[in-house]
TrEMBL record:
Its EC number is 1.1.1.100. It is an enzyme of class 1 (oxidoreductase). Residues 5-189 form the Ketoreductase domain. It comes from Jejuia pallidilutea. GO terms for biological process: monocarboxylic acid metabolic process. This is 3-oxoacyl-[acyl-carrier protein] reductase.
């Protein structure tokens, strides 16, 4: 049973993070969703609270995963509000794409600092709370974390890093009763890379599918740990 547990979801104001928050609240999990925008975080929390039927509560927190102090403050806010922290979903991420000749330094640093260093900061800030609750740390990587492509140098590097980082953290923390998994989605219907979700995205993985997968992980018997999960659309368009 995961009812009454407490989850922090980075980048939870939209897309995959929001879908995960919805799925968790349907199971009675209290959630904190973060965004760099305070308005976006609070608006997402309001929508979540307006649509829950389980009594679970959502709060919004303005936080930047690229700033360790900001992540520490987010963790402190969650514990102050709910008294504990059971689950961290390290979801915040972005993409900047282009050939290595054209990839700008600022784009490289933004991708690496958000997608990889941000995951490190999230677990580093929350590790003691998760050890105390014998909780769960889940990262959202990507199939791009094992499959490279032209124009993806920064994004591939960040997601290859997240995949490897998460597996190493899993080995570090399982001795403390903390479970660690990474989810590696293919194409998901989100706003990622300036996409506008529409009927044309019907073939893609939907955010509720990732939410269901997170719930399944959390409800897995404690003796079993799916540590790395690849998930892809069943029938992508023919090329």
């Amino acid at each position: 049973m995961i009812k009454n547990k407490v989850a922090l979801i980075t980048g939870g104001s939209k897309g995959i993070g929001y879908g995960v928050a919805q799925a968790l609240m349907q199971k009675g999990v209290n959630v904190a969703v973060t965004s760099r925008s305070e308005d976006a975080a609070n608006e997402a929390a309001k929508h979540l609270n307006d649509n829950t039927l389980t009594g679970a509560k959502a709060i919004g927190i303005a936080a930047d995963v690229r700033d360790f102090k900001s992540q520490e403050k987010a963790i402190e806010t969650v514990i102050s509000r709910f008294g504990k922290l059971d689950i961290i979903i390290a979801n915040a991420g972005l993409g900047r794409f282009g050939s290595i000749e054209n990839l700008e330094l600022k784009d490289w640093h933004e991708v690496i600092d958000t997608n990889l260093t941000g995951v490190f900061y999230s677990i580093k800030a929350g590790v003691e709370a998760l050890k105390k609750s014998k909780g769960y740390f889940i990262t959202i990587s990507s199939l791009a974390g094992t499959n490279f492509f032209a124009g993806g140098a920064a994004y591939n590097a960040s997601k290859f890093g997240v995949t490897g980082f998460t597996q190493a953290v899993m080995l570090d923390l399982r001795q403390h009763g903390v479970k660690v998994s990474t989810i590696m989605p293919g194409s998901v219907s989100t706003y990622f890379n300036n996409n506008e979700p529409s009927e044309n995205d019907a073939w893609k993985i939907q955010i509720e599918d990732i939410g269901k997968l997170v719930v399944d992980l959390l409800e897995m018997h404690p003796r079993t740990l799916p540590s790395k999960i690849e998930v892809r659309p069943t029938t992508p368009p023919s090329k």
